Amino acid sequence: MMTMTTAKEIAASLLEIGAVHLRPEQPFTWTSGIKSPIYCDNRITMSHPQVRRQIARTFAETIRAQFPDAQVVAGTATAGIPHAAWVAELLDLPMIYVRDKAKGHGRQNQIEGALTAGQKVVVIEDLISTGGSSLKAAQAVQAEGGEVLGVVAIFSYQFPDAEALFADAGIPCTTLSQYTALLEAASEKGVITSEQEKILGEWRKSPRTFFE
């Protein structure tokens, strides 16, 4: 019998293919302005068949276990789209995708694909950071009449503010792997020292001010 892939195994795969970079001594600057010792680019997974299959299978297993009534798989543009397609195929379900905003031409759709009012939808995302864009996608599905059962993402930084955002919106959010699992995997692989692990752990508690 196949066992479900663990959060640490997913994290180890992301580290192995270079989807995650850890640089506590020279932090990255995100678009939001947050200075971060970690940069996660899950788009890299598209180029690694074994890892993308591992992720797709774990997505499918998670949805079957937590959202068995799902009728539609929705991908967030753009990084969630390929994963949603692979997962929809595994689950034999219809797929849609959600733009960050409505098109400015044609039918001005924000959601592409067929969504019927009342259908139960699971939203696939690649990464949860502050949570705002993922929640916006879920709310766009709701605005079109879909019932969002939850958001499922590959990875989360586990920011308390993001967790509170989804809780306040009443939308469950789950991830295949998380920041704490990543640090554990990185430490076991010798990617980071114990001192770097400490810095990385402290940063997550106050990401907006830690490097100021």
From TrEMBL:
* Annotated Phosphoribosyltransferase domain residues: 48-155
Query: What pathway does the UniProt record associate with this protein?
Result: Pyrimidine metabolism; UMP biosynthesis via de novo pathway; UMP from orotate: step 1/2
What keywords tag this UniProt record? Glycosyltransferase, Magnesium, Pyrimidine biosynthesis, Transferase
**What InterPro entries does the record point to?**
OPRT (IPR023031), Or_phspho_trans_dom (IPR004467), PRTase-like (IPR029057), PRTase_dom (IPR000836)
Show the catalytic activity. Answer: orotidine 5'-phosphate + diphosphate = orotate + 5-phospho-alpha-D-ribose 1-diphosphate
Q: Which CDD domains match?
A: PRTases_typeI (cd06223)
This protein's record includes keyword Glycosyltransferase: yes
Q: What class of enzyme is it?
A: transferase
Q: Which domain of life is it from?
A: Bacteria
Binding positions (orotate): S129
Query: Which annotated residues bind 5-phospho-alpha-D-ribose 1-diphosphate?
Result: R99, K103, H105, E125, D126, L127, I128, S129, T130, G131, G132, S133
In short, the EC number is 2.4.2.10
| Assembly and oligomerization | Homodimer.
Described function: Catalyzes the transfer of a ribosyl phosphate group from 5-phosphoribose 1-diphosphate to orotate, leading to the formation of orotidine monophosphate (OMP).
Which family is annotated? Belongs to the purine/pyrimidine phosphoribosyltransferase family. PyrE subfamily.
Q: What is the protein named?
A: Orotate phosphoribosyltransferase
**Per the UniProt entry, what species is this protein from, by scientific name?**
Brevibacillus nitrificans
Organism lineage reads as: Bacteria, Bacillati, Bacillota, Bacilli, Bacillales
